[in-house]
Design brief:
The structure is a homodimer of 266-residue chains. By secondary structure, the first copy, chain A, is an alpha/beta fold. Helix content of chain A is 38%, strand content 22%.
Chain lengths: 266, 266
DNA sequence: CTCGTTGTTGCATGTTGTTGCACGTTTCAA
DNA sequence: TTGAAACGTGCAACAACATGCAACAACGAG
């Protein structure tokens, strides 16, 4: 059985590659011959597409078609070591929104790990997180009440997502939540790369009184595949010092309090 | 009964190998003739697949099909770790009880962290743990399926205990469990220092087919405040090389398989 | 409008990977 | 010991592949 989207037959080359990727992500595999039939191009062109996608690490070519790339696409450990000054500046500004005695819901992610590391000790904070790395970090520093969200860990995310995690988040209540931002756009709100991830972030936001989105420049105005929530559920946005002025006012005019991090030394 | 995924019949060659591996991991064994039928290829092709998988150490070929490979101990790499040589020796012996494809329930604790660090990669192991430190350790090494037990983290224990954690453990099933031992006594069984901790360990044992207690010398024959379980629920006991002979036979005579770690170099 | 450039496409070429079969060998159980 | 089933190997047929090339459309500069 071969799915044929109405417009598959006359797609632009780049558009065709996107559609191939989309099929790959939903089915886990694509067959060159089937794609050639669906897009009405020769298998040679399909092979060229797959070659390019593979060069970008977006698929793994195999005899007859392509599969999803091996899960080891995750240099998570490596990413974590990037203690960039920019993320620390963002984290310092984000932490200024936290008040003593509050309960925080902190998502997985390197930016959020920086925030957790910047939290004040001895402020009687309770932190709920789905990331073992963040939990560990806070345990080492002592002085925090830490609650762990259980479930299956997604290695690409570095934390738990999925039904079990969502169910647990629904049973807690937080003052502030820090959903990791994959993309945020003034018109369409907050976005995630992965479906499960987006559902989890949404649950986080619904379990919190206020939401703080901390976004590096590359995430501003971007849009990803799965919507997490409307912008109206976001009360605070923390951006880098270098963030575009127009982008900042776009959020401010929609009722989001925009906080600008200090300029970094470097 | 032979499971047949809808698309098994026309899988790409490499995809077919992945599916074979997947079957192997879930069933523990595969039969060449069945695979040939399911994938609609000749047994020759299946044999070629199994040969390749075996060459990568991902399966063990036997007459008629293939089995999961025997667990190969991780080469003793002299990495700088906080674990003492004694704990590493204990961990190596404990890991030898693990078979490829199994699901393990691992409690918090430094000894258990050493065990987690000694687990073989690429053996298709699923690890369920209540300790963020252990989860983090396995995520960094990659190649493991990790499930996190959520709940409030007890800072003294370094992992989650309490009602929520117990509830989650009740919903999983493991082949082997490693409850951290506070004290173990031939007459009275396994003991914990803390009430909540003991309840959690009991839940772990009840969720597992077999229980392995790994005990340093100081814990042998000791008794603590809260009983975790009778000795009858413990199938394996791993002790140090230096463990008292009388203490060892006391456990052996009660039906517990006692495994003695190698003598440490230092 | 014309021309050159660029990018895409399909085709022809030779190469590589995969498959099933034949044949001789090994394994296992009766 | 014997026979059937499973196995390894070599081989030929075939499908998928990479590469080079020419045709063609889209596009911008002159």
């Amino acid at each position: 059985m071969v799915k044929v989207t109405p417009a598959d037959n006359n797609a632009l080359p780049e558009e065709r590659q996107q559609r191939i990727l989309s099929r790959l992500r939903s089915d886990g595999r694509v067959v060159a011959a089937e794609l050639a039939l669906a897009f009405e191009v020769s298998e040679d062109s399909i092979r060229r597409d797959l070659r390019e996608l593979a060069a970008q690490g977006l698929c793994k070519r195999v005899y007859g078609g392509a599969l999803l790339p091996a899960v080891t696409l995750t240099p998570l450990k490596q990413r974590r070591t990037e203690h960039s000054a920019r993320k620390e500046a963002l984290a310092r500004k984000a932490v200024s929104l936290v008040q003593a005695g509050q309960t925080l819901l902190i998502d997985a992610g390197t930016t959020n790990a920086a925030i957790a590391a910047a939290l004040p000790r001895e402020a009687g904070l309770t932190v709920i997180t789905n990331a073992p790395h963040i939990a560990q970090l806070l345990l080492d520093r002592e002085g925090f009440e830490v609650l762990l969200i259980g479930g299956r860990i997604d290695t690409a995310i570095g934390g738990t997502v999925g039904a079990q995690a969502v169910e647990q988040v629904r049973r807690v209540r937080a003052d502030l939540c820090f959903p990791g931002a994959c993309a945020i756009d003034a018109a369409h709100g907050l976005w995630g790369f992965d479906s499960e991830e987006a559902l989890f972030k949404r649950a986080m936001i619904e379990a919190s009184d206020e939401t703080v989105v901390v976004a590096t420049d590359d995430k501003l105005g971007a849009v990803a595949a799965h919507q997490v929530s409307e912008l109206s559920r976001v009360q605070h946005l923390v951006v880098e010092h270098s963030a575009d002025r127009a982008a900042r006012t776009a959020f401010t005019s929609r009722g989001v309090a925009v906080h600008r991090a200090e300029a970094t030394a470097g």
